[in-house]
Design a protein that fits this description.
41% of the residues lie in helices and 11% in strands. The protein is an alpha+beta fold. The protein folds into two domains: 60 residues, Double Stranded RNA Binding Domain (2-Layer Sandwich), CATH 3.30.160.250; 51 residues. A three-stranded antiparallel β-sheet has the order 1-2-3, with helices on one face. Helix 3 packs across helix 4. It is elongated, with a radius of gyration of 21 Å.
Length: 127
């Protein structure tokens, strides 16, 4: 079983979001559900999130809760193969050409632009 220091040495991903209401920043570690802090500056937040991580891990170990390890981003290649109708392929190629970019970059743009669409089929959000 790993100890506090083993987990503290691991490189967890930190998400930073601008807090528009309080005019500061919200920092969290997604793998450690509920490990979150707020700060006026990112620099201050980075110190505070390390403290929050240390306390989160300590509490989890004391309670016998399994501490998740960081997601290894190296296991993702950044590639996948996608089959589509020829008509869609043609349309994407034409749109990419019109934008002056590759179809690959155009598809990455579309995926990143619409990555927050709810998965609920009854949603009124449309692409």
């Amino acid at each position: 079983m790993k100890k506090n220091n083993d987990y503290l040495k691991m490189n967890y991903r930190i998400e930073v979001v601008k807090d528009e209401i309080e005019d500061g920043y919200i920092l969290s570690i997604p793998e450690l559900k509920g490990c979150i802090t707020t700060a006026e500056t990112i620099e201050e937040g980075m110190i505070m999130i390390e403290d929050a991580k240390r306390e989160w891990i300590k509490a989890a170990i004391e309670e016998g809760i399994k501490v998740p390890e960081p997601i290894d981003s190296n296991r993702y290649s950044g590639q996948f193969k996608l089959r589509m109708p020829k008509s869609l392929h043609k349309e994407l190629m034409e749109r990419a050409k019109k934008e002056g970019t590759s179809m690959n970059q155009y598809c990455v743009y579309l995926l990143s632009k619409y990555d927050n669409i709810p998965t609920n089929r009854h949603s009124k959000t449309a692409i």
